[in-house]
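pasting for ref. prot 1 ->
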Amino acid sequence: MKIIKSSLLFKVMVLFAAISLVSCTKLNEKVYDEVLDTSLINDPANAPGLVNPAYATLRRLNEFWGVWGLQEACTDEAMFPTRGTDWYDNGSWQAFHLHTWTPQHTIVGSAWDVILQGISRANTGIYYLKQFPSSADIDEYIVELRFLRAYYVYLANDFWGQTPFRDWDETDYSIPPKVMNRKEATQWLITELTEIIPSMKTKSQVPFGRATKAAAQTLLAKVYLNQEVYTGTADWPDVITQCTNVINSGDYTIASDYWAQFQYNNPDTEEAIFTIIHNDNYDEGGGGVWVNFTLHYNQVFGNYTSLWNGGCITKTYWDTWTKTDDADVRKYDARIKPVCGFNQGFLVGQQYGPDGTALTTRDGSPLVFVPDVNLKNASEAEGIRVIKFAPNPQTTRQFNEGNDFYAFRISDVYLMRAEAELRNGDEAAALADVNAIREKRNATPRTSLTLNDIYNERGYELYWEGKRRQDMIRFGTFNKAMSEKPVTPDYTSLFPIPQSALDVNPNLVQNPGY
């Protein structure tokens, strides 16, 4: 089930644009659609249309040139080496790998804009829903928007440690929004999520893709998991409590077929706690372009004719895979190979077309993907590629992939709980949680456990799902040397506030070091 209908979403976007422009522009034109825009905010029957924009912003969180890039391209899981004249982009991708970004970095700015847009859309929806008489449906929509707003605040707090924020009823836009520092935002998140969780519905009570009680509990667990980074004070027992609440709900189980979750028509899987819905039947205007940016130019298949030969993993990350079994199913799956020519998981060695022909580079050399990569002058075949989300070969929109994306899934919750248990001194409980996953992945169960084992396990289970930067910071590896990146200063654990944001909000102060 898809949340957003195109015509209704269009009306909402027109209305929201009008709201944002009315203070500085006199609009003389009437905009017509199926109904006049004002009816949307006067009729409670249109309440879903006031919720949709905040959900629609979620689709932009897995853009490789935006939020996903911030999560992955600065880590060992993903790098975008310069290949001849390709992928230089004024040094943007090299800066990500080397942690030398600046307040003018376009991807940092893009991610900031998307996240702040999400907060704003959630607030606007809450404001108009509050004008309707209270009802079970209206109250549920409001609490969902409060969850979405909290999710966007969580991202801003994690990336920048400063969050511009005004509440839904603060409507004097001539006053710049206040800015919560990291400790303030962390406490706001704990208070807000604790307050809304009892009012949220369970998985069976809402359509697929809507926020649930388990989603809010998982988000709260993530806040607690990273609380030591955010505030200097750890809270492992509350991580365990919230994760246990989700696990014991009985609504989610570890998938028996790992790769079924990542097919292009991926269903509402048993693991999905909070899912960002995509559909390649529509032009979404954003979202994941999962295969184009990594596959070699010559790996064409089906309707995919434009491939960009960019992103790959680092050798530092690849070397962690020597510490698990070759039988681990998360490393390789061949089910799409007869149609696409390549496998899911890691693409290593000689590559082939769908007809079995050995592929070559553009100069005729064998197309053999190798682990070593030169960041500033990589050959066409350097770097192991990743296909986590299977493409739809017959799509008519090769730049608008239809895979639903998991913001939260239950295996992550098990690993969060295991980490908190081990840090809290309970190795036996942590070992049980890690092995619950490894047994489903055909990996040999562990007999003992270290924090580094959990760090690696998160890398095996969750790679390219937008978790690595946060994990590396929490485990103390983010600023260490890796694959051409030297040791970097601790301040790079926060991104710079974009200069464009500093220019319009005097309450923001640039993060130290920038």
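and prot 2 ->
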Amino acid sequence: MEPSPPAGPAAALSNGELARVFHEIGDMLEVKGELVFKTVAYHRAADAIAHSPVEVARAYIEGRPPRIAGVGEAIAKKIEELARTGRLAFYDRLRDEIPPSLVALLAIPGVGPRTVRQLHDELGVESLEDLRRAAEGGTLRGLRGMSEKTERQILAGIEALESRQERMRLGQAEAIVEALLAELSGVPGLSSIEPAGSYRRRRETIGDIDLLAETHRPEALVERFTSLGSVESVLAKGPHKAAVRLLRGPQVDLMIMPPGEAGTYRIHFTGSKEHNVRLRGMARDRGWSLSEKGYLRLGEDGEPAVGEAGEATELRTFPTEEAAYEFLGLPFIEPELREDRGEIEAAVAGKLPALVRRSDLRGDCHSHSDWSDGVHSIEQMALEARRRGYSYLALTDHTASLAIARGLDLERVGRQRRIVAALNQRFADEEASGTAPPETSGEGFRLLHGCELEVRADATLDYPDEVLAGYDLVVASVHVARRQTRDQLTGRTLAAIGNPHVDVIAHPAGRYIGGRDDLDLDWDVVFAEAARTGTALELNGSDERLDLSDVRARRASEFGCVFTIDSDAHRIEELDNVRWGTAMARRAWLSASQIMNTRSRAQLLEWAGCKPARART
């Protein structure tokens, strides 16, 4: 159903109504084929409006125009026009030109703005249902560039789009959580507010978002939560919980915890369901019923014991999760482990692992610069890594055959190596003279020269051994010819693992979550050979990859594999990706001793320099 145009200025538009218009503008500009930065600018403006603490339209009407972060003059004028008049001429013109229902077609895999315009202009397609009928009727194959195969692909894409559950990447969920916490943190009476659910467990994708709040004034918090500008609809609203659907976002559930009783609430609403079922069973065996409200004493009949007025005769509550677990004779179980994959048994036996932490990382073994497909310069990447307190960052730009990523030929490799050497000399001089920034690691900082070595379709490597021997660190990966047989793909990965100069296999499954399937490898064979040769497997922290997955990483650890946690950063902000890689490592039960880049620079370089010696026969 098409959205209604905004109302007139009799009542000031809400932030949500303003945001909805600017999101629609961004969508329609994308269908028109405008430059990406323009469409992104409108979506960013919409997000800024939705999360603004100021009622934007009212502020304009009252003659005190607000400053909106990240909004330039041109968009600001449009916001003012819409806020003051309730109409926006630019928006109306776009709606006449681009039916808003066309935007939904962009969600079909493989259907881009050019195809959407072609379908609309030549066939009059304005909706998913129009497109389905055209594809089923064989109409599309008459258009330039389309065929019977295109029709089948589009029909499959529509089916997948309609059947899939909308889930977010961790980074997308993080942005929503942080915005909500910032907007709610100042509500009177609020003691704490925090995320729970699958986001707190760091599942690789997130459905709904759960928030837990401890407050003396629940009504004030619920009222503020349900009236946020980013809220599209209120699904439930009560004195102790509320649920909303965000504008272009997920459902968010808010649960209120009585002050001082958060322990069992945090356990219950963090989950998982299976973990909680196990805990409830343990509680029942001890004569208690466990819920978010606490431990309730059971009577002789196995039902909760209640008094004459129906009140609980004995309810135990706890301020912390640690205390709530201790009541069952268990140590604290980290949220990432709560999936009923053996954590209860390990806790009972006193064998829970000491999980790796982000602060354990001494460096990052996979990053890119503008010499290949990165955004920032070599120097910018190095300076940012040093500012973060790392003792090393491996620069691993792509190798020659990956032309799409501007892979380096041997002449460029030599020039890049000289730049790295000059930077490292500068860093050493600054450390010797005491002029290095205070954040610099105690062992100083060095930029390691590495590469992301392409494994070609014929299982050969991009560079000869004599070139690879000159690198500090070599990570290898498979990008091309992904549709080969399992034996061929496995053979290519094994060829990289078996090379005496390859230290790390980057994003081993080659996946993009929700966008590209995993490589079809014989994983146990790969894990066994990686363990035998001492070749590390990467936990790639990009939330689009999270590769290895937690399940595969745990399986690899059973073979005795070692790992790296890397950002695969293509810009300085993406160095933060290691937080997600660390989360996957924790979900895989990995400790710092299994992660190579928790080692000092000297230890890492010693490890990288002796691969043949560490291989087992």
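The chain has 24 helices and 17 strands.
Residues 101-163 form a domain with the DNA polymerase; domain 1 fold (CATH 1.10.150.20).
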